[in-house]
Amino acid sequence: MGFYIRGILYSRVCIYLYPISQEIIMNQGTLYIVSAPSGAGKSSLIQALLKTQPFLYDTQVSVSHTTRQARPGENHGEHYFFVTVDEFQNMISHDEFLEYACVFGNYYGTSRKIIEDTLASGVDVFLDIDWQGAQQVRQKMPAACSISILPPSKEELLRRLRGRGQDSEEIIAKRMAQAVAEMEHYNEYDYVIINDDFGTALADLQSIIRSERLRLDRQTQRHYVLISKLLAD
């Protein structure tokens, strides 16, 4: 028999440094910042990742707040959190966003509390944002893992944009100019994926997630009881 002091069992023969209940310690989720020029395949890669095992149950895409009107088929809390301009500006004044921007007269932002609560529950979160938003997030959450996705060439990016059949040549030209501005910041990211072949790019993205989950700090949290047992006298 032994006795407890602050949750540690002291025995006549040894000291157990792991919790007697052997409860699994909740592992902190990882925040992934993913940026890419329009047409590089960022959204398709993220959606494909969410459909694969073993990533499905503990990974999700961040849902942003916006002041724009909901479009047909969009649901509050699923596609966006739809709020008024006054509500959004009040959130800004209380520093409730990790990042935000005004695009074509509408505000878009990422809630700090939602991200922090989700990460605390052990769920990984993907932020689909541009390089400017990425810089804002890094300042507030420097432990975030950032990934830049690039096309194999400008010619291929142009082909993909035209292949959508959604924009005029004038709009496509603007998107190409924006793409160059986005790609200039590739060296600010932890990882770079070239999306030439979709299957290969998806495998690269999966490898990044896998490697992040095998980091020392995350494995120590996840397997604390096991490691304590292995190191016990």
From TrEMBL:
Could you say which EC number(s) this protein's record lists?
A: 2.7.4.8
A Pfam family in this protein? Guanylate_kin
GO annotation, cellular component aspect: cytosol
| Positions annotated to bind ATP | 36-43
Which reaction does this enzyme catalyse, per its entry? GMP + ATP = GDP + ADP
Q: Which UniProt keywords apply?
A: ATP-binding, Cytoplasm, Kinase, Nucleotide-binding, Transferase
Family statement: Belongs to the guanylate kinase family.
Name of this chain's protein: Guanylate kinase
User: What is the originating organism of this protein?
Assistant: Xenorhabdus japonica
